[in-house]
Amino acid sequence: MDNVIKIGQSKFWTDNDILYCQFRNEKANYRFELDAVKIFIKIIDKLCDGKPMPFLIDSRDSQGTFTRESSNLMANSPTLVKLRISEAYVINTIGIKLVINSYKRIYEPLTPFKMFDDLESAKQYCLKAKNNFYGSN
């Protein structure tokens, strides 16, 4: 793991040119506001250092949602658009699955994504996406 950065209940790091985002919020009524997403974008930009990567987003046992403004920023941030190859979501609740499906349908339908119930399958998806993007096997 390279450069682990923690902020609140969230953690970000890179490993093997995959960006990992881990969210562990336990409050069902929590909403990620615009200021939090701006900080997340700065962290992701720093960790990726200009190199596009697949994003592996681990939201197991997490609750809450994003505001409309923060979802829009995550989807359309020029920084994230240039860095995001694909998204692999690791989930274990129907609530988070519904949040992700809504986000992808409404705000960000362009980036390829899949949802998984285990970390290893998500890693394999990210490695394949990275290899396809950079043209290696």
Compact summary:
43% of the residues lie in helices and 28% in strands.
What does this structure look like?
It is a single chain. The protein has 137 residues and is of the alpha/beta class. It is built from 5 helices and 8 strands. A 6-stranded mixed sheet has the order 1-2-3-5-7-8, sandwiched between helices. Strands 4-6 form a two-stranded parallel sheet. Strand 1 (2-7) and strand 2 (10-15) form a beta hairpin. The longest helix has 16 residues, at 119-134. It is globular and about 45 Å long. The model has no long low-confidence stretch (mean pLDDT 90).
Which consecutive residue ranges, at least 5 long each, have pLDDT under 50? Answer: none
Approximate strand percentage = 25-35%
Q: Write out the strand line-up for the largest beta sheet, numbering strands in chain order.
A: 1-2-3-5-7-8
Number of strands: 8
Largest sheet: 6 strands, mixed
Gyration radius from CA atoms, angstroms: 14 Å
Calculate the terminal CA-CA distance, rounded to whole Å.
22 Å
What is the N-to-C succession of helices and strands?
Answer: EEEEHEEHHEHEH
Helix-strand category: alpha/beta
Break the fold down into its secondary structure elements and pairings.
Layout: E1 2-7, E2 10-15, E3 18-23, E4 31-32, H1 34-48, E5 53-58, E6 65-66, H2 68-76, H3 78-83, E7 84-90, H4 94-106, E8 113-116, H5 119-134
Parallel strand pairs: 3-5, 4-6, 5-7, 7-8
Antiparallel strand pairs: 1-2, 2-3
Helix pairs in contact: 1-2
